[in-house]
Amino acid sequence: MSEMDQPIVSLQQVTKKFGHFEALKDITFTVNQGEVLGFIGPNGAGKSTTIRILLGMLKKTSGTAQIFGQDVWQEDTAIHQRLSYVPGDVYLWPNLTGGEIIDLLLRLNGQQRTEKTETLIQNFQLDPKKKARTYSKGNRQKVALIAALSQEADLYIFDEPTSGLDPLNERTFQQEVMRLKAAGKSILLSSHILSEVEKMCDRIAIIRDGAIIETGDLLSMRHLTRIKMTVRTEDSLTGLEKLPGIYELKFSDSQLQNAEFSVDRDQMDTLMRFLAERKLIDLISAPPTLEDLFMHYYEKRGVDSHA
Ligand SMILES: Nc1ncnc2c1ncn2[C@@H]1O[C@H](COP(=O)(O)OP(=O)(O)OP(=O)(O)O)[C@@H](O)[C@H]1O
Ligand SMILES: [Mg+2]
């Protein structure tokens, strides 16, 4: 297999035990060349543990974990020359300034400050002259992000990069990820909030209780889920309950002109015709959340396992 076809990150049946506790059970997924993979799961699911194994900070119990086709534990030095990352818990030297820490982090990776670094400091609106101990959580996160993003690497790994960032800085981060993606870099991005990463990701892997429960592109998972709707019409919505693919219907008025429900994606067209005939005044639709994806998975699983 040539280097081009080979996955950049490859985890095969990776397990991790802390004593008797199985933190990771059979973790299998890949990140391909030029791809942004969203690694999504709730608190305690095992995201950081997986990432620490990939970074060679923690030894797996069993399975195969490779980056650039090399073993993450045995060949971590070689791998780290082509890797840039931000860990989940950002530790900064309290008595150094943000700027000094950025320089130090770059030097530790054999790199140095460039024009790109200055642009990032400006874009993230970081004051690099303040001592790290005076920084807020968001500012500490920015220091680590600026150092990681100003490095040239083939693979970027970010563990919950936007935690603590305000919406403006979150957008700056997203723009940086899109820039890296356009440059053909590979990116692994963990988050516990689907909506934070879905714009950037080509594919997602969902982890829960130490196991991967879904992998795939969001579009192919989206059809699994229902859209939440809030509608208001001029005419009564009687008969809405009889339409196919309508669930959890609730009316909030006795004239039946205000309804809340969820709808299957493939019944959207029928629903829209129905609503239009009743003179639609207002419509709010909400995309499925991570929790909806989980719920769907468990409902499906529950039925399968009882069959
Ligand atoms: N060093 C350790 N010793 C014992 N248990 C650990 C250790 N590190 C992690 N765990 C446990 O492993 C599980 C996974 O933790 P991990 O930090 O990987 O979750 P996470 O998905 O990153 O969560 P979060 O979103 O809160 O960062 C948790 O139950 C955690 O308590
Ligand atoms: Mg974590």
Automatic annotation (TrEMBL):
Keyword hit for NAD: no
Keywords: ATP-binding, Nucleotide-binding, Transport
UniProt cross-references to Pfam families, sorted A to Z: ABC_tran
Record domain ABC transporter: where: 9-234
SMART domains in the cross-refs: AAA
Superkingdom: Bacteria
GO molecular function: ATP binding; ATP hydrolysis activity
Record flagged with keyword Membrane: no
UniProt-listed SUPFAM superfamilies: P-loop containing nucleoside triphosphate hydrolases
InterPro entries associated with the record: AAA+_ATPase, ABC_transporter-like_ATP-bd, ABC_transporter-like_CS, ABC_transporter_ATP-binding, P-loop_NTPase
The family this protein is said to belong to: Belongs to the ABC transporter superfamily.
Record's protein name: ABC transporter domain-containing protein
Annotated source species: Enterococcus hermanniensis
